[in-house]
Amino acid sequence: MSSLPPALDFAKAEEEICSNWTAEETFKTQQDLGKERGDEQTLSLYCYARNEKEFTFYDGPPFATGLPHYGHILAGTIKDVVTRYAVMSGKQVERRAGWDCHGLPVEYEIDQKLNITHRDQVLEMGIDKYNATCRSIVTRYTKEWESTVTRLGRWIDFENDYKTMDPTFMESVWWVFKTLFEKGLVYQGYKVMPFSTACGTPLSNFEAGLNYKDVRDPAVVVSFPLLEEENVNFIAWTTTPWTLPSNLALC
Questions:
Q1: Residues in Cβ contact with 111 at an 8 Å cutoff, skipping those fewer than 6 apart
Q2: What is the pLDDT of the chain when averaged over all its residues?
Q3: Contact predicate 54/42, CB 8 Å
Q4: From the CB of residue 21, how many other CB atoms can be counted at a distance below 10 Å?
Q5: Which of 164, 182, 208, 238 has the fewest CB atoms found within 10 Å of its own CB?
Q6: Which residue in 102, 128, 135, 133 sits closest to 201, CA to CA?
Q7: What digits encode the pLDDT tens for the residues 37-49?
Q8: SS3 for the chain, per residue?
Q9: What is the pLDDT of residue 11?
Q10: Under a CB-based contact definition with an 8 Å cutoff, are residues 200 and 119 in contact?
Q11: Partners of 37 in the beta sheet?
Q12: Beta partners for 91?
């Protein structure tokens, strides 16, 4: 204990440890030692499945159009615990960083930048040019992500990363869908979802929340007389009066 400095700078100590890991290639060395030991080869790229010969761990990749926040950090730490445990249990785990390059968050940023408000403007610009503009920002914060994740002590391969816009990745997704279809596991159903009238596509909850605003809506109050009692009425209040004709609860 006497060798400890009177005032320990934890932030500086973290940076020194990260620098040592980089200089000594600690993560790569750990992977190489696992191969030399003959650790069991896994199916890897992130989905946790335990059996005698396989270990996989699928991790939904983040968008690199924004900086990491608390949610990313917490989830990433938990995932790192799982993969480290697998390695210490004699599994060989390939841990590759990945980037989500699809979805409306990317398009939304470009639409704001180019003042695009309608699909016709995209067609006029040219889909190829629009896509190229989207591609130009999808890896904007990869270095910041690498710095933050490394500082957290998570070991993951950023040099051999993958992107969902890579043709090989997209083809693998189509292969999975084709396989599910051939096994009779794909069906057509109905689900109520947020919908973008401008983009003409359903929205995820995350996408729907990107442009969430508090606005004033007209409200309608409607009286529903009770047939059995002449002087009794049910009062309904709604901000979506166009749904009243299909109201079955009070009709």
A1: 117
A2: 83
A3: yes
A4: 17
A5: 182
A6: 102
A7: 666 554 444 444 4
A8: CCCCCCCCCHHHHHHHHHHHHHHHCHHHHHHHHHHHHCCEECCCCCCCCCCCCCCCCCCCCCCCCCCCCHHHHHHHHHHHHHHHHHHHCCEECCCEEEECCCCHHHHHHHHHHHCCCCHHHHHHHCHHHHHHHHHCCCCCCHHHHHHHHHHCCCCCEEEEEEECCCHHHHHHHHHHHHHHHHCCCCCCCCCCCCEECCCCEECCHHHHHHCCCCCCCCCEEEEEECCCCCCCEEEEEECCHHHHHHCCCCC
A9: 86
A10: yes
A11: none
A12: 40
Q: Do 141 and 66 touch, CB atoms closer than 8 A?
A: yes
For the stretch 90-104, pLDDT in tens is 887 888 899 998 877
Q: Is 222 exposed, middle or buried (0-12, 13-18, 19+ CB in 10 A)?
A: middle
Asked whether the whole model's pTM tops 0.70, one would answer: no
Distance of alpha carbon 167 from alpha carbon 202, whole angstroms = 24
Residue with tokens 């989830």: 75
Contact 57, 44 (CB under 8 A): yes
Region 66-85: what's the mean pLDDT?
A: 89
Instruction: Reply yes or no on whether the pLDDT at 145 is more than 90.
Output: yes
Of the chain, the end-to-end C-alpha distance in Å amounts to: 78
| Cβ neighbours around 175 below 10 Å, total | 10
